[in-house]
Design a protein that fits this description.
The protein is mainly β. It is about 0% helix and about 45% strand. Strands 2, 4, 5, 6, 9, 10 and 11 form a seven-stranded mixed beta sheet that branches. A four-stranded antiparallel beta sheet has the order 1-3-8-7, with no helix packed on it.
Length: about 120
């Protein structure tokens, strides 16, 4: 079966850092672009960042640019989201998702084929 599993979510103080991980199984990760999305209570799901299958292309939402870094290790079938200078507004459930096609823009959730179950990130003092 094809699965994505997120981990690394935690409670952290404002200004702190976390690294989220997304582990893939049941398929060859090299063929997929990967996106990170998040959803806060009462809000719509929003795209955070995405990365090309090779790792050579990365895109960030304006709200996280300069603070978050997406990366991948295809040999380990892992994708990461390093989050620095965290703010209360970053509190959300974070999801990773895989797309088998590179569209040039991957902000739409409907473009992804597989989704993880999410990991909770809470930024609070």
């Amino acid at each position: 079966q094809l699965q994505l599993v997120e981990s690394g979510g935690d409670l952290v103080q404002p200004g702190g850092s976390l690294r989220l991980s997304c582990a893939a199984s049941g398929f060859t990760l090299d063929y997929y672009a990967i996106g990170w999305f998040r959803q806060a209570p009462g809000k719509e799901r929003e795209g955070v960042s995405y990365i090309s299958s090779s790792g050579g292309g990365t895109v960030y939402a304006d709200s996280v640019k300069g603070r978050f870094t997406i990366s991948r290790d295809n040999a380990k079938k892992m994708v990461y989201l390093q989050m620095n200078s965290l703010k209360a507004e970053d509190t959300a459930v974070y999801y990773c998702a895989a797309s088998k096609v590179w569209y040039g823009s991957l902000w739409k959730g409907r473009l992804y084929d597989y989704w993880g179950q999410g990991t909770q990130v809470t930024v609070s003092s």
